[in-house]
């Protein structure tokens, strides 16, 4: 009898120990520490409690509606099933868009073009008039150096050619403005897929410049060019941004890789997006980023890490910086900070429809030495146009 009692006590003890252990195991597996990432890790990341190597991260790719597999604090990357997407829209063809949107550009920049033409067409151009010309250019955000260059060139030509013939003045101004805008820059923004992997475009810029909207519009542009596109919502700072991006993608049948967790690791989402892009053999993967400008070191850490993680399986072929044309000098300052942090290869200038400061195109290109590739001219889904130097200058002058 005492033996039986001892046996029962031992059994109860064993069950109790197993129960506590099991509960602890569940807690551990369900509660990833705040700082752990589901994606690949860099050497400078904090030590993980449970390491998820790139291969293991595959487990976190799931379809919407599927039961969450892991802890809620860990980012879960979702790949919407293509079958769930609504019937895809057919976006407007890309070329010729600037012609359609030209009126908007011309409308907001009347002061620049028309003002200059009126000033230059006067019978006598004295110093006061030259001052006014200079002021007009500076007010249009052309920048000091290009303004001086343009005024000097115009002074020289007016001296030789005169200013009586309006057509001649128009042509003269057109030629000189065109030189500043530089039609020789490579503005191609429709990349080809690499033989074994997609072309990867990283899109950077501060919140509110129109970055997510621009990626959505660009997805349409690329789809209109028969490209297979996949979006990566690595702007995890604001969860709604990922939803917004996915909605843009859904409209044209483009999948989006995103995390449902606010503040999930952006590099992890970028990694998953590129991997999905490789697996699905798409042509182009576009990665949205948050790029908060709280300080340069933070920005450098975030964007640098996203880039490094992408480069574990592909190359970052293009870094597009999105800038809001209405912010003037502030935009230039932003551009400078981003250019110091990442290798910006092209610029998308948004909200050019809402500003008379078309000269910002020249100032930004000069500042960064990279071309403006696309311009945003409205809130409509197809109000993004490839930048064309000649059409742009013509719109300013007409
Ligand atoms: N008029 C005009 N509005 C634009 C243009 N591009 C974007 N917008 C508007 O600018 C606002 C901000 O756009 P978002 O795409 O949300 O900006 P964001 O930079 O991605 O901001 P976050 O998502 O917070 O990172 C939206 O209301 C857009 O419709 C443009 O070219 N012209």
TrEMBL record:
GO terms for cellular component: cytoplasm; plasma membrane. One of its GO terms (biological process) is SRP-dependent cotranslational protein targeting to membrane. Keywords: Cell membrane, Cytoplasm, GTP-binding, Hydrolase, Membrane, Nucleotide-binding, Receptor, Transmembrane, Transmembrane helix. It catalyses: GTP + H2O = GDP + phosphate + H(+). Residues 34-89 are annotated as: Disordered. Residues 46-59 have a biased composition (Low complexity). SMART domains: AAA, SRP54, SRP54_N. The chain crosses the membrane at residues 6-27. Involved in targeting and insertion of nascent membrane proteins into the cytoplasmic membrane. Acts as a receptor for the complex formed by the signal recognition particle (SRP) and the ribosome-nascent chain (RNC). Part of the signal recognition particle protein translocation system, which is composed of SRP and FtsY. This is Signal recognition particle receptor FtsY.
